[in-house]
Amino acid sequence: MDHMIDAEVLDLAHDPASEFRAAVLNGLAQLQKTIPSKFFYDAEGSRLFDHICALPEYYPTRTETGILRASVGAIAAALPPQVVLVEYGSGASVKIRLLLDALDRPAAYIPIDISGGHLRASASVLAFDYPKVAVIPVCADFTRPTALPPALPEGPRVGFFPGSTIGNFHPPDAKRLLRSFHRQLGPQGRLLIGIDLKKDPAVLHAAYNDAAGVTAAFNRNLLVRANRELAASFDLDAFEHLAFWNPAAGRVEMHLRSRIRQTVFVGGRPFRFAAGETIHTENSYKYSVDEFTALGRAAGFATVAAWTDARQLFSVLMLADEG
User: Can you give the pTM of this predicted structure?
Assistant: First the structure.
């Protein structure tokens, strides 16, 4: 197959602009104001997240990449030839290269991402670099039921969900998402997933409060996006980044905290903030391998292998049908 990239497949079941508007209006009307973290990733948000991944304090990306580099031979040996790789939330599609280089004649790569421009750019580069692999990008929200493109090459499906993104979901929602992956990948499928492990809270605090302020800019970019797309009136200087470890919930929480008492308008609707009131923008749950294995089992998966770095910061698990 020569240098193939199929037409981008759009999820037409929803309108991203109206979904963002509805989520912001509904979220700001709650007692604990919130904006879902999936809306971080417009073009600027995606760029800022790529920057975060390279920061010295942000260990997950380099640690997971190190685990994949060290273990990719074992991972590839555990998978059959000519797999169809499905990456959920592909972003810059960096880690997938380690798999594509090691696997035995991968038949296709389907990156699924909500950021269409970012997706198209990274998929085009991968299609050029891997001319024997069918690269079929899907612009969609993978947290919703998403059908894979028709007429995929034959081959067992292997899901790839790196970056500890599963930690952004409340455990019941994470279980539902894993069940959705299980259905999509089929009983012969596998899921390779990255999880952030529980660790010293000081390490977590540094990772989510970097000295350069990139994570703060990433967080506040939600307000920039709302101002641009929803005719909102957020004063960026009136909100500060807040991230902390919540030990009772087992998660890092990210918020935008109002510095002053103020009223913000979104599409003409007023939302009042007390000084110190927050918009909850992200959770990042941390697990032990045993805790995540139990969560996967509840979704129909068994953990068949787990790879971890020497410092026990992060783990990459291979899941298979429990039956």
Answer: 0.90
Q: Where are the alpha helices (DSSP H) in 159-304?
A: 171-185, 201-208, 214-230, 289-298
What is the distance between the alpha carbons of residues 215 and 254, in angstroms, rounded to a whole number? Answer: 10
Cα–Cα distance for residue pair 134/129, rounded to 1 Å: 11
Going from the C-alpha of 293 to that of each of 12, 195, 290, the distances in angstroms are: 34, 11, 5
Among positive and negative, which fits the CA dihedral 10, 14, 15, 20? negative
Computed over every residue of the chain, the mean pLDDT equals 92
pLDDT tens-digit map of 231-289: 999 999 999 999 999 999 999 999 999 999 999 999 999 999 999 999 999 999 999 99
CA distance 9 to 7: 6
Domains of the chain with CATH codes: 56-199+287-321 (3.40.50.150)
Question: Quick one: which of 190, 195, 184 has its CA closest to 318?
Answer: 190
Mean pLDDT (whole number) for 162-179: 96
CA distance linking residue 298 with residue 322, whole number of Å: 10
AA letter at 246: N
The strand pairing partners of 9, in sequence order, are 138
Contact 33, 280 (CB under 8 A): yes
